[in-house]
Design goal:
Order of helices and strands: EEHEHEEHEEEEEEEHHEE
Helix content: 10-25%
Radius of gyration: 18 Å
Structural class: alpha+beta
Number of helices: 5
Largest sheet: 6 strands, antiparallel
Strand order of the largest sheet: 4-5-2-1-3-6
Shape: globular
């Protein structure tokens, strides 16, 4: 099993002086969106992130180091009173590739290297999904849509609605969550990065199906 993943450093303007340090298998942007629950008034900002091997182990080592030198405000949460420059010093000691802040690209891992793929490329669901596959999109932690892919019609079905693309499925969820978005341009990221599919009782980014 691939042990590569992201270590990230996030900030939130509603939590001045604190940084969130953690790890994720998905793109850091997805993780930042997941952390914006109803109890968090403002979105998280990615200060920097790095794609590394053995990311779970390295995250534990990183947390242990930070605990020795800086204040961890809650032993059950990875929030520290520390500056970005100090955390960045630790990240510099790790082998890997930094997250690329380019709105026109998404990050992919192929044979241990980081590559860019244009988000405006059209991917047909029938080339990647199997009949009956569960497709999930989350907004925060509890606001979740789980649709079912129908191979015959090449659509995703959610409740009484039918979506002809992954992008339409994702965007409909955002509009349902915030009706003021109706009629506006979708700027909420690539659906293949933000959505997940179920495999062996686990949820995996649909982006992995493109590789």
């Amino acid at each position: 099993m691939d042990s590569s993943g992201w270590l990230y450093c996030l900030s939130n303007s509603s939590m001045p002086g604190l940084l969130k340090i953690g790890q994720t298998k998905n793109e850091p942007k997805v993780r930042a969106e997941q952390l914006q629950t109803t109890g968090v008034p403002l979105p998280f900002k990615i200060e920097f992130a790095k794609y590394v091997k053995d990311y779970v182990k390295k995250e534990k080592n990183l947390i242990n180091l930070l605990e020795k030198y800086y204040e961890r405000i809650n032993p059950k949460r990875e929030f520290f009173k520390v500056s970005k420059d100090e955390v960045y010093t630790f990240f510099e000691l790790l082998d890997g590739e930094y997250y690329k802040f380019n709105e026109e690209t998404i990050i992919d891992d192929i044979d241990g290297t980081i590559n860019n793929k244009l988000v405006n490329k059209n991917y047909d669901m029938k080339d990647y999904f199997t009949d009956g596959m569960k497709i999930r999109h989350k907004i925060g932690i509890t606001n979740i849509w789980i649709g079912i892919y129908d191979k015959l019609t090449n659509t995703i079905k959610y409740k009484n609605e039918i979506f002809t693309s992954l992008s339409k499925f994702k965007w409909a969820h955002y509009i349902d969550h915030n009706p003021d978005l109706k009629g506006k341009k979708d700027i909420y990221g690539n659906p293949w990065v933000l959505c997940e599919y179920e495999k062996d009782n686990e949820w995996i980014s649909t982006f992995e199906l493109l590789n």
